[in-house]
C-alpha cells in the first residue's frame, strides 16, 4: 500500500494538516525544485497535482 510522505505546495492556504510534512514555497518553480529534491532524498515519487502542489508517495511500503 502506498503512503504520502510529504507535500510541497506554492499555496499556503491549500494545505491543511494531515500527518505528512508540508513544505510551502512561494513560487511554483521553487515548489517543483523542492519536490524533485525531496523525491531523491526520501526515495519516493513526486506527483504533480496540477494545482501548485506535489505529493511525495512511497509506493514500496
The end-to-end distance, rounded to whole angstroms, is 6 Å
Number of strands: 4
What order do the helices and strands follow?
A: EEHEE
Task: Give the biggest sheet.
Answer: 4 strands, mixed
Structural class: alpha+beta
Q: What count of helical segments does DSSP give?
A: 1
Provide the number of structural domains: 1
Poorly predicted tracts of residues? none
Per the principal axes of the C-alpha atoms, what is the gross shape?
Answer: globular
Order of strands, main sheet, comes to 2-1-4-3
% residues in beta strands: 25-35%
Rounded Rg = 11 Å
Helical amount among residues, as a percent range? 10-25%
Tell me, rounded to a whole number, the average pLDDT: 92
